[in-house]
Amino acid sequence: MNTAHSPKLDAIDTPAALIDVERMQRNIARMQTRMDELGVRFRPHVKTTKCVDVVRAQIAAGAQGITVSTLKEAEAFFAAGIGDILYAVGITPSKLPRALALRQRGCDLKLILDNAAAANAVVEFGKVHGHAFEVWLEVDTDGHRSGLAPGHDALIEVGRTLQDGGVEVGGVMTHAGSSYELHDVEALAALAEQERAGCVLAAERLRAAGVVCKTVSVGSTPTALHARELPGVDEVRAGVYVFFDLVMRNVGVCGTNDIALSVLASVIGHQPDKGWVIVDAGWMALSRDRGTAKQSHDFGYGLVCALDGTPIAGAAFVGANQEHGIVAIEPHDADALATRFPLGMKLRILPNHACATGAQFPEYYAVMPEGHVAVWSRFHGW
C-alpha cells in the first residue's frame, strides 16, 4: 500500500491529491486525546480517506475498530488485518451474502438498520444460512437523515424482531449530521448533548424492554470535538477530522492551517483581461461539492494556496469545468498576470469537502515532515 518515493512537489504530475502528514498526525492526536479525556472508545469513520496507511496511523494513536460506508471498504480493510468493523449504512437484502462471507472469514462485521422490513430480511437470511448476525439499530437524534426515533414504539418492535429471530442487537448508533450546518460553540455543544441523550435514551428503552443492547455509539466530527461529557456513551465515531476541510473550517472546528488534504494543480493558461488564471484541476479533481456556498465564507471550489500551503491573498477559485479550473485574481494587473503565475506554476487547492475531493483520486501523495513523499493507495467503488 505504501510505496516510498522522493519526488519534489513541483515535479509531481497534476492534478494530484496531497496529504500533509504532519497536519494529519496532529489532527489524529487531537481527536484521540479528546476521546481519552471523555473516557470513551474511538471508532474512526474511514470513508473520508479509504486508505490503509491513514487508518493504521489512527489505530496506532489509540482508535479501536473502524466505521465504513461500503462493503468494499470492509473487505479491503479486513484483508489488511482490521477485523472490528461497523458498516454504518442501512443493510439491504442483496448485500447480506457479502456480509455473511466476511463474517464467515472471521470479520467482526456489524450491520445497521432502521426499519422492520430490513430486520425481517436479516432474520430470515440468518435462519436460512444458520448464521446469527450482529445488528445495531440506527437512531435519529436530529432529523438529519435516517434512523428510528429514540422514543418511538418502532424502536422496540424492531429490536424485538431481531432478538426474537436470533440476531444479536449489538447496540444503537447515531450521527448528528446537522452539526455541519452550525458554527457556534454553544450550539455545537448543545447538539452534542442532544445526540448523546437521544442515543442513550434509545438504549435504555431497549434494555427496559428486555432487548440486549451492549453499545451506545455516537458521533460526527463537530459534536465529537464539542461534547463536554458523554455519560452512557461507549464509543464515538468521526471521519473528516483526520483531514478537515473548508466546511469544517467554517463550522469552527479547525483552522485553515489544520487542513491536511489539498489538490496540487498546474497553471495551464491565462485570461489577462478577465484577471483569470486557468489551472488543470476542475471538478473532476476537486469534485462539484460547494458546501461552503451556504456558510459564512464561500470559498468557491476551494482555497488557492502557494506550493508551500500559504493561502494566496486575492485569489478565488470561482469556476470549474471538467478538467479546467478558473482562479480569479483581485486586484489584477493584466500585464503582470502571466509573470506572477507563470505557465506550469504549481498551486495547492484546499477542498470544500475532503471526502468528496479524496474520492476523485486513486492515490495520495503523502508529504512527510522531513520532506520526502510516499504514495498511499486509496480504495474506490462499492
Features:
alpha/beta, 382 residues, elongated, TIM Barrel, single chain, 18 strands, ten-stranded mixed β-sheet, eight-stranded parallel β-sheet, Lyase, Ornithine Decarboxylase, Chain A, domain 1, 2 domains
In short:
With 382 residues, the chain is α/β, with parallel strands linked by helices. 31% of the residues lie in helices and 23% in strands. The model has no long low-confidence stretch (mean pLDDT 96).
Structural class category: alpha/beta
Q: Level of helix content?
A: 25-40%
Question: How many domains, as an integer?
Answer: 2
Which runs of at least 5 residues are low in confidence (pLDDT < 50)? none
What is the fold-level CATH name, i.e. the topology of the largest domain? TIM Barrel
By CATH, the architecture of the largest domain is named Alpha-Beta Barrel
Can you put this structure into words, describing what you see?
The protein has 382 residues and is of the alpha/beta class. The protein has 2 domains: 23-242, Alanine racemase (TIM Barrel, Alpha-Beta Barrel), CATH 3.20.20.10; 256-377, Lyase, Ornithine Decarboxylase, Chain A, domain 1 (Beta Barrel), CATH 2.40.37. It is built from 12 helices and 18 strands. The chain has helices at 21-38, 52-60, 71-79, 96-104, 116-129, 153-164, 185-208, 221-226, 246-251, 283-286, 337-340, 354-358, and strands at 2-5, 16-20, 41-42, 66-68, 84-90, 108-113, 134-138, 168-173, 215-218, 235-236, 261-271, 276-279, 303-305, 315-320, 325-329, 346-350, 363-367, 373-377. Strands 1, 2, 11, 12, 13, 14, 15, 16, 17 and 18 form a 10-stranded mixed β-sheet that branches. An 8-stranded parallel β-sheet has the order 3-10-9-8-7-6-5-4. β17 (363-367) and β18 (373-377) form a beta hairpin. The protein is elongated and about 75 Å long. The two termini are 19 Å apart. The mean pLDDT is 96.
